[in-house]
Write a structure and sequence with these properties.
- This protein is an alpha+beta fold.
- It has two domains: 139 residues, Creatinase/prolidase N-terminal domain (Creatine Amidinohydrolase, Chain A, domain 1, 3-Layer(aba) Sandwich); 236 residues, Alpha-Beta Complex (Creatine Amidinohydrolase), CATH 3.90.230.10.
- Helices cover 28% and strands 23% of the residues.
- The strands form three sheets. Strands 8, 9, 12, 13, 14, 15, 16, 17, 18 and 19 form a ten-stranded mixed sheet that branches.
- A hairpin with a 6-residue loop joins strand 13 and strand 14.
- 45% of the residues are buried.
Length: 381
């Protein structure tokens, strides 16, 4: 039995459960330890899967407290889990197929296809008590092992390269839609499995929008001098996600906007330098950024000073727990990978973002995304 499986069973025991039943989603991937099965994400599935449109699962996994793991899957997936016991079934017969393997009276269930899981267990035995168990493995999922870190390190590097390719190939007159399609095509041309979310290249040309339109990004907007481009990009491969953001400026930026970008980058770098593993709390990170930005005179345009919202963990899903804001309470531990995405808004001028993937190490923290921090203004003539 793998160390991951042993730790998961310990969590099941601690919760006084007889087992857990999960459907297609990040927890399924984590418990099966398989990245060969591609489960289709939708835009908001990464907020716990609570907005998932799936009604019937195409596969479910039952892990008992004694360590027996059973996957019930449709015929197409019979070979997707070579190291597990796979029982072939059909989506509308899964509860019948599953019934011989479910033991006990108190079963934890995941959030994906939640209502189906609950009804399936009650069809197997009306006396089964179901308990929401999606959060049961959050602490374990937050700490990535060497294999996971290697995959995400490659993904981060790929995302850096993809955006650099797009930035260097943008031409005056291109639309926001063109830029976003280029981001998608670059991923597809290089064998990326999917996208963490639809890629965004938000165009904002100074003097063309009011403060009420700060967050309106028409995809027909064209690239002309004086345009800030706020990238938000995530690729997905081998079952893991990237998430990355930058603002770059086509042409010559106003001095205050340019200095603001330097301040935002300085805040990001300062925050990472101040992380002490096993001591720093995620709820401290926003204020580390704020302190540096404030020293440089840009606190007035830094967003989310009320909530301290800065980012999120990342892994099999784009947004994982613990979230990075003042209301969270979690110590940063080696193996955690989180995204820090501080933002500024120069009303009527520029929407600015910097987002990096950051790995907590044994001695501190390091950037997995290393896109040129000095690249802001560009002109591809």
């Amino acid at each position: 039995m793998s160390q991951r499986r042993e730790k998961c069973i310990s969590k099941i025991k601690e919760a006084n459960l007889d087992g857990v039943l999960v459907a297609t989603g990040p927890t399924f991937q984590y418990l099966s330890e398989s990245t060969d099965y591609f489960w289709q994400r939708n835009c908001m599935n990464n907020i716990d899967g609570r907005l998932s449109a799936k009604i019937l699962p195409e596969c479910v996994l039952y892990l008992s407290v004694s360590g027996e793991c059973t996957i019930v899957a449709i015929p197409r997936l019979k070979d997707a889990f070579p190291n597990e016991t796979v029982i072939v079934s059909y989506m509308d017969q899964m509860e019948d197929t599953l019934s011989p393997y479910v033991k006990g009276k108190k079963i934890g269930i995941g959030v994906d296809c939640h209502e189906w899981l609950k009804s399936a267990l009650h069809e197997i035995d009306p006396k089964i008590e179901t308990v929401d168990a999606e959060e049961l493995f959050y602490d374990l999922r937050a700490i990535k092992d060497e294999k996971e870190i290697a995959i995400m390190r490659r993904l981060a590097k790929f995302t850096d390269e993809a955006v650099m390719y797009v930035v260097t190939h943008l031409k005056e007159g291109m639309t926001q839609y063109d830029a976003e399609q280029m981001l998608m095509q670059y991923g597809l041309d290089h064998g990326i499995q999917d996208f963490s979310f639809p890629p965004t290249a938000g165009f904002k040309t100074r003097g063309t929008f009011s403060s009420e339109e700060n967050f309106v990004f028409p995809r027909t907007s064209k690239l002309v001098p004086g345009t800030a481009i706020a990238f938000d990009v995530g690729y997905m491969d081998q079952g893991y996600c990237s998430d990355w953001g930058r603002t770059v400026y086509y042409g010559k930026a106003p001095e205050r906007v340019k200095e603001g970008y330097k301040a935002l980058q300085a805040g990001q770098v300062s925050m990472v330098e101040r992380i002490v593993p096993n001591k720093t709390n995620v709820n401290e990170l926003y204020d580390f950024v704020l302190e540096e930005v404030e020293k440089r005179g840009f606190a007035d345009v830094l967003r989310f000073k009320d909530t301290g919202m800065l980012g999120h963990q990342i892994g099999t899903d784009c947004h994982e727990y613990p979230m990075v804001n003042r209301s969270s309470d979690a110590i940063l531990r080696p193996g955690m990978i989180f995204c820090s995405e501080p933002k500024m808004m120069f009303e009527g001028e520029c929407y600015m973002r910097v987002e990096d993937m950051i790995l907590v190490t044994e001695t501190g923290a390091e950037f997995l995304t290393t896109f040129d921090r000095d690249l802001f203004e560009f002109n591809n003539e």
